[in-house]
Design a protein that fits this description.
The protein is an alpha+beta fold. It is built from four helices and 13 strands. The chain has helices spanning 8-11, 43-53, 118-122, 153-163, and strands at 17-25, 31-38, 62-64, 67-69, 71-80, 94-95, 106-109, 127-135, 141-146, 167-169, 171-173, 176-178, 180-189. A hairpin with a 5-residue loop joins strand 8 (127-135) and strand 9.
Length: 193
Amino acid sequence: MRTPSLPAGSKGIREHGEVGLTVCVDVTGNVVAAGMSKSSGYQLLDEATLAWIRSGLNFKPALSGNKPVAVCNYVFTYVWNYGSGKKDVTESYVAWSDIKPEERPSIATQVNGPFYPPKAVLGRIEGTVRLSLCITPFGRMVSATPIEGDMDSSLISATSSWIGRFTFNPGKQDGQTVGVCGFPIKYVWELPS
């Protein structure tokens, strides 16, 4: 996937930061809606990120079993690192299994929720969503990948969206904060009796 170019006006003043995005992706992987859930604090970076996500990007479609499904409210974070402008943020991340247990990322704050998706309520759908997260060196989730099962896509999306609002204590390696992929997390969805 191509990455956005650092705006010219941002280079000279060394703007950097994280932009939180919420997107809807159709069954072919095309972005059909996108919005910003968290500002980087810099208007140029925010605008460049939104323009990039709306520019015809194509994601690998989400799957329910072996069938591609549309996903809405997928939350992820794009990290602008000064000097690059073109960086796959997870490329240099460390695997969860390669980090000492005491240096792994952990949840710092979590928010109330998640809200049961209306489609799942109507269908009386319950189950456990297991995700593998990538956590930035700044303590934010940058991606969430389902790791097992034939779970309903609305439950996966709602879980990912909810966890995307958490903050994390970042992982460390050799005394330095690092991005980490493979953070396992699960949420059990149960309808009230």
